[in-house]
Write a structure and sequence with these properties.
The protein is α/β, with parallel strands linked by helices and about 325 residues long. It has one domain: Metal-dependent hydrolases (TIM Barrel, Alpha-Beta Barrel). Helix content is about 35%, strand content about 10%. The protein contains eleven helices and eight strands. The chain has helices at about 5-20, 75-85, 100-110, 125-135, 160-165, 180-185, 185-190, 210-220, 245-255, 280-290, 295-310, and strands at about 45-50, 85-90, 115-120, 140-145, 170-175, 195, 225-230, 260-265. The chain has an eight-stranded parallel β-sheet. The N and C termini lie far apart (about 45 Å).
């Protein structure tokens, strides 16, 4: 059952935030609903640490998984204008399999000073290819294995590739189910790299923070081995907007436990949702103020933590 207290607190906090804010200008963004800007002001150098580019006209898809028809750099800049972020981490989506050109190209368009990337690779990649990706702004590799039917990498690839990228200082990023976190716990504990867990680490519902996977991720955070992305609210709820109560309970637990090991991501263009169910990105950004109501903590999540994890220049 949903925790009534978190539901009420989340709804009240979000309603108060929306009611107290002054009117703001409108900005229409593809793959997003609504036009208003967030009520929460983004600090200078705020980073969106999880989004994807889909540009099939220039970079044809390699896979067959359903994807947004277009989500280009030019369109993403409209989201930056809307939510006030200026730095970004681009994650290669599964539709490109192990073709990371679209991500490296997007980094170049946005500028290496303000953009980084996370690639998807197979163990057959050469050392020279890894070096080229590094020079292009890639700082990690992703294993999106929550749905084995469409996954382009496998759990067996994790350790061999972790050893390959450790010398580059890259991290391993995971989009996996909570049950997979439990099953792969021993592997995770012995990896030679930092780890980043997408979308609140996806603990099964209704267990949420009471699921064994959440405890394993908390253990890795406490040992300073891992990071968690405060993203994917709609992937961690059955109730949904505006308060996303189950996701709110998970996020608040992480914020209370390890604010220095968290980053935030929009997950634009929201590829897991159909075109007629895209979320309001302003609402998603405002959720961060509910999850982390302390402004200093929130600014750490948006600015200082991405600087540490992705190697952006330190802010003044």
């Amino acid at each position: 059952m949903i925790r009534r207290r978190e539901f009420i607190q989340g709804a009240m906090a979000l309603a108060a935030l929306q009611a107290s804010a002054p009117p703001v200008s409108a900005q229409e963004v593809p793959n997003s609903v609504g036009t208003n800007q967030p009520k929460t002001k983004a600090p200078a150098q705020a980073c969106d640490c999880h989004m994807h580019i889909y540009d099939p006209a220039r970079f044809p898809f390699s896979g067959t998984t359903r994807a947004p028809s277009r989500a280009t750099v030019a369109q993403y800049r409209l989201l930056q204008k809307r939510n006030g972020t200026s730095r970004v981490v681009i994650v290669t989506p599964r539709n490109y399999v192990v073709d990371n050109r679209v991500t490296v190209d997007a980094i170049a368009q946005l500028g290496i000073a303000n953009a980084r990337g996370v690639a998807v690779v197979h163990p057959t990649i050469t050392g020279a290819e890894l070096k080229k990706l590094n020079e292009g702004g890639i700082r990690g590799i992703r294993f999106s294995i929550a749905d084995p039917a469409v996954a382009v990498t496998t759990p067996a690839m994790i350790e061999p590739l972790a050893k390959r990228v450790a010398d580059l200082g890259w991290h391993i990023q995971f989009n996996m189910s909570g049950q997979q976190v439990v099953e792969l716990a021993d592997v995770l504990r012995r990896l030679p790299t930092q780890m980043v867990f997408d979308h609140l680490a996806n603990p099964p519902l209704p267990a949420g923070v009471d699921h064994a996977s959440h405890g394993i991720v908390r253990e890795l955070l406490d040992k300073r081995r891992a990071w968690v992305k405060l993203s994917g609210a709609y992937s961690n709820t059955k109730v949904g907007p505006p308060s996303y109560p189950e996701a709110t309970a998970i996020a608040r637990d992480f914020v209370q436990a390890a604010p220095e090991r968290l980053v935030w991501g929009s997950d634009w263009p929201h590829p897991s949702l159909p075109d007629d169910r895209k979320p309001d990105d302003a609402l998603l950004f405002d959720l961060l103020a509910v999850w982390a109501p302390n402004e200093a903590v929130r600014n750490r999540i948006l600015v200082r933590n991405p600087e540490t994890l992705y190697g952006f220049a330190k802010s003044a």
